């Protein structure tokens, strides 16, 4: 909250400050409008080389550059400094909530094992690999030398990928639901993982003596499970509230919506207040609220809240890129470390390969033949590892936390990586995905023949797969998958009747196999579509 | 924007701060939820002695008091200090925009002359009367003595009335449309007037030599007209944009809504950036956008934006009262000036009487017999002069601007006045209005016989009223009224066809007289009703 009006005894100064705020916010709104309009025009002309996020970043960079050249007043500039606190408290929550809220539960849960593997184990691997490589690079005098823990901090913050751009292109071009679920789920959970890892490493650094590796893992799991429980708990509470409060009558719509939109934020702040991870918490609140609470709302409110969260998150997303671009153009950077930047880019490419192909191998071990993740999907997943606002915000925090030169180096490198990946990968994703033949409207992609059987049928079939030739490891992996199936039954038989007003008529599952051939491709208007309950997928 | 994370080299400190923010915001959300639920329960039990605003203020006061007693950490407390900048930049704009947006143009414009008289001339009179009385009180040693200009500053800030509570009670009980339009219009425009007056006085104080009374008036008019033009200009621009951009197709709804919700804020910040009054500007943008831009939206977006602005402004309104209550409980007050508080309350009662009954007399001079404002309405208007957040925020600014004791005295007095009026007047408005027989569902109120003829018919009839016995002053006042009529024709013949897609089928006006007997009372769900275009009133 603003602390920009110190106790001055000069009304003109006060008025000037308010004027500066006005100009600053005015500029921001103009850039937002410009981004939306530009993004719309580019999309309408099917120009995929400059996605909306890249366009926003560019607009921010350009306006920031102009402001730099034209010596804009400091009082206006302060409105553009990227405040990590503002990002974490106000911009991030709606984006992450919308991720959970717009998540299609079926493909997500049917790929749950793979998603968790990629995002938890994979991000862990990527962070360690990046950290170790950067440390070795330092030892070998290839690049600026950082202490090992700081290398790991850099490794974890730079492993947070950004879903916005890639997913929007997937939606434009139409994509396989499973690939979409993988990319989506990975990038969402991965943020939560990266931020937890970063915080853990940062704690390790400050009490470097007392903690060992085991404690770090415990602490991490504690945070993750605690946050998830908090999020799910808040979600269930909201479901019960809306089930029994009887607010779904016409003239209470405003009250209903007010309460509904407060819950996600409540979940985020509850977790933060308990020193847990707000982003993990709000993500699960989003999933639970969409699955249970949402169906207890009146129809009008359902329409409204979907559009509301979509709107808020679009604004926040676009704003984040503009804000970042502007800040990059304005901040001091220590460009002396070009070597550091170059090698970091190389290392994150390697680390992401280790993550995706390593975890892909593991997942495929556990999956039956017709469900293997094809190499093209793995490549697409590897390629879609843009770095965005999360990495940027964490790097900005590291400037505050680490001794002078170190934080600055990490920040500059992260900045460069963000700009390069958003502009290059963002611009080329369309081409790349088309080259891999995983997108487009044609049906003759390189999918396995049983691949269309996405949801229950896959799960049902899965039970009879346990052949005696399996290794113990495989069996464990498969049991993990089975838990997803039993969750699905638990959901239908107990959770849904308990938390929602639909008693027993929850038949969307049964319809899926009938129309899945028509639904397999993600339609253009998926996210903007009002009437899409997001379940009959 | 937050500047609460200074460059600390301690990750734990950083995490602690984020935790404090989490706890602070969590508390705020819980109070919001509590207010909404409590307000709903009270309303359902038709308990009008504690309206929602008073309940919110009380909740804030209680929680603030508890936080004070329990020695809550400073890092959490900072989240509750009322920052006037936060109020003016983020909480106020949605509230004022919603006022303009939900305004029923017909009764507003048919009472336009009266509203402007009450809010511009009346507020001016009230400010001067309060200021002079406070100054005289000081001279006569009745109360703390302030310099004359500061008395006028106090007079203008304390003349800003708050519409929220009274209007919500009017809506609950059902009220005459003309009285509603008067109270509504007066309290909305009056805020703009009071803030402009306050700023002008504050400028006069800092360059006390160079300016005379005439210049003050000029400067005030400049601000007012400039802001109004800016607001109307932005509104018309948005109307043209939405008319020609072709965004009203289904899958562009999100883009349409994003752009729509950015315009009001753009208008506010444009005016602030130009050193004009954002609140006047956004009010007129609201009126214009509802009247023209709104009808260029797709039906879904129309529904959405109505609900969106209603939601945002409800949240902001409720939050303002909580925030104010909490801050009042936490701030230091110089309670030594009980005399000042007592006499100020007496003086503002007198000043508001001067405003309402004086202007009421003037307005009745100009109105034909069947349109006179009855005494009961004038009394209701006089009684509904709650002081709320606007007065509070300006008083907080005065603490920064004025030398120590003075600002503090003004602030304490304002705080006391806000609490007293919100709790006392808010709680008794229902009883009072019923005693005056201006509310309730019965139709036998003390209205003049021609009084139902609210809209066009009145206007049309009005032309033939100019009897030769009128004084020159009366004629002038009537001409002012006629301009409202010619505006109505200008609107129908030129503005509406030019700015909206309705070409010529703008027939809502013609239907009004047929069903006005059913529509005369404001229905319970007026503000929450989706399908209410707000024109067929």
From TrEMBL, chains A, B:
It is found in: Membrane. Coiled coil: none annotated. It is a multi-pass membrane protein. Residues 36-434 form the Cation/H+ exchanger transmembrane domain. It catalyses: K(+)(in) + H(+)(out) = K(+)(out) + H(+)(in); Na(+)(in) + H(+)(out) = Na(+)(out) + H(+)(in). The keyword Membrane applies. It comes from the Eukaryota. The chain crosses the membrane at residues 20-41, 48-66, 86-103, 115-144, 220-242, 262-284, 304-326, 338-359, 380-399, 405-426. Its main location: membrane. GO terms for cellular component: endosome; plasma membrane. Keywords: Antiport, Ion transport, Membrane, Potassium, Potassium transport, Sodium, Sodium transport, Transmembrane, Transmembrane helix, Transport. Pfam families: Na_H_Exchanger. The keyword Membrane applies. One of its GO terms (biological process) is sodium ion import across plasma membrane. GO terms for molecular function: potassium:proton antiporter activity; sodium:proton antiporter activity. NCBIfam families: b_cpa1. PANTHER family: SODIUM/HYDROGEN EXCHANGER, SODIUM_HYDROGEN EXCHANGER 5-RELATED. Belongs to the monovalent cation:proton antiporter 1 (CPA1) transporter (TC 2.A.36) family. This is Sodium/hydrogen exchanger. It comes from Brassica oleracea var. oleracea.
